[in-house]
Amino acid sequence: MIDEIISRREGAVGRITLNRPKAIHALTQAMCEAMSAALLEWRADPAIEAVIIDHAPGTRGFCAGGDVVMLAKSGAAGGELADAFFDAEYRLNHLLFTYPKPTLAIMDGITMGGGVGIALPCTHRVATENTRLAMPETGIGLFPDVGGGWYLPRLPSRVGEFMALTGARLDGAECHYLGLATHYIRSDDIPDLIERIVGSPSRLLGALGAATTTPPEARIAANEPIIQTLFASDRLEEILAALDADGGDWATTEAGTIRTKSPLSCKVSLRLMAEGKRRTDFADEMTAEFSLATHVARTHDFHEGVRALLIDKTGAPDWQPAVPEAVDDAMLNALFAPVASAWTPFAETEVPA
């Protein structure tokens, strides 16, 4: 059995390589725990100056997300296994967000869901011509978690709300334009970049600057005004009404896309982002998302979405409720209620067991 996480020291750099290629490095609980263990060890080690997170070469992407298919096939997607997975994943997300040393994520290729959750907390985030970043969770009855409630509403022009509702895929230039990536570098130049950083981690910023190239024009820039206008509301029905009233090709396409998603998940996502935008502590965001994930993993739509989109691949989930108007405040309040088993981050002095 191959190691799905390869962690090692290269000089004064800690390196974590995702190595589950057949699943595009989709995260399991064990992978999250292995990454956290390495990060905790290096956090306490003064000999480690920086951390690089990448994926095995020759594969299609950085990370396709969390392995919700494994949870669903286990028969425990709505139970303790899912809770344990989200707990481990969110502890990893928070550990990266608060990490005291420079961290670099190489978002080369598919970077979605859980992959976004381990990339965006890093201090340095590289996009390439291969990058395809998305938070597509509303299509499987989930919501943009792993900090999505923190990052997305802080994007300009309501782009985060647009991404959450439609699952739109951004390319590397768009990621750089929006600040989701800090640097745009050609994929072929990544090995040399890593070699330079390993050789002199104190000059990490210089190495990144030297490798950076000018990205192509960000296509999303032209759509920012219409996104800001038509996605201005925090109410799903009002966004759909605005898109329908516009009637243009772009608006019609996006309205059609949203109507294929779980109405419950779309409303959950909008509320999460409205609340997340007001939060000032990332730990509070993770606590709220853990409670929400614990509830949502027990809903019909989560099981149905995973089945229809990822297991049977029929592409035709039976959402319940089927329309936004049938999702009322009582349903949302129940999902946003705190849970007894509260989530907690790693302590500042915690070391791996």
If you had to describe this structure to a student in words, what would you say it looks like?
It is a single chain. Helices cover 46% and strands 11% of the residues. The protein has 353 residues and is an alpha/beta fold. The protein has one domain (5-335): Alpha-Beta Complex (2-enoyl-CoA Hydratase, Chain A, domain 1). The two termini are 23 Å apart.
Element order: H for helix, E for strand: EEHEEHHEEHEEHHEHEHHHHHHHHH
CATH architecture: Alpha-Beta Complex
Total E-strand runs: 10
Oligomeric state: single chain
Give the SSE map.
Blueprint lengths: L4 E6 L2 E6 L10 H15 L6 E6 L5 E3 L4 H6 L6 H18 L5 E5 L2 E3 L1 H6 L4 E4 L4 E3 L13 H4 L7 H8 L3 E2 H7 L4 E2 L5 H10 L4 H8 L8 H11 L5 H11 L2 H10 L4 H14 L5 H15 L3 H12 L17 H7 L18
Parallel strand pairs: 2-3, 3-5, 4-6, 5-7, 6-8, 7-10
Antiparallel strand pairs: 1-2, 8-9
Helix pairs in contact: 1-3, 3-14, 8-9, 11-12
What distinguishing features does this structure have?
353 residues; alpha/beta; 6-stranded mixed sheet; 4-stranded mixed sheet; 10 strands; 11% strand
